[in-house]
Amino acid sequence: MDRESSAVQAAALFFPVTDLLNLGKSTENPGNGGPPKSFVKAFGPDATNLARWKVIGRETSPIYHLTSNLPPVLILHGDADTLTPLEQSDWFVARAREVGATVKLVVRRGKKHGWLTMLWDIRQFADWYDEHLRPGAGREG
Questions:
Q1: What's the confidence (pLDDT) of residue 4?
Q2: What percent of the chain has pLDDT over 70?
Q3: 62: three-class secondary structure by DSSP
Q4: Is the dihedral of CA 110, 115, 116, 118 positive or negative?
Q5: Which neighbouring-strand residues pair with 73?
Q6: DSSP letter string over 94-134?
Q7: pLDDT (tens place) for every residue of the chain, 141 residues total
């Protein structure tokens, strides 16, 4: 009997935080290596303990879990984003390519953390999924 894998087969997303241990130029960077300033509570009561945060931040940061079997990933990111700066996506792309994963970054010039026309960009997500999920699109199955 043929069965499809329940593993994620492709992903598409906007402006992701990929490394919580290195918030870089983000306006959320507390400057001490801790969690994002406005989102500390979202990570639980141990997030304020910097030693525990290093464990929590690593466990919840995608950049530390990249392998060659990462599904194809499409990222759209504005280069004027100060909440989640473009460097987060740049770091992810570089690391993903090191492990041989398929990743595409589309940079929206002058766009911040969200933009009025981003709903139209979702069409690119559909195209990405069509490219990578349609039967015969290079997937095993």
A1: 75
A2: 95
A3: helix
A4: positive
A5: 11, 103
A6: HHHHHTT--EEEEEETT-BSB-TTHHHHHHHHHHHHHHHHS
A7: 567 788 899 999 999 999 999 999 999 999 999 999 999 999 999 999 999 999 999 999 999 999 999 999 999 999 999 999 999 999 999 999 999 999 999 999 999 999 999 999 999 999 999 999 988 765 444
Q: What tokens were used for 125? A: 């997500």
Please give the pLDDT value at position 141.
40
Q: How far apart are CA 85 and CA 92, in angstroms?
A: 12
Q: Is the pTM of this model over 0.85?
A: yes
**What letter does residue 74 receive in the DSSP assignment?**
E
Whole-angstrom Cα Rg for the chain: 17
Sign of torsion over alpha carbons 117, 92, 66, 34: negative
Domains and their CATH numbers in the chain: 11-133 (3.40.50.1820)
Take residue 46 and report the two structure tokens written for it: 């141990």
Assess contact for 91 and 19: CB atoms under 8 A. Answer: yes
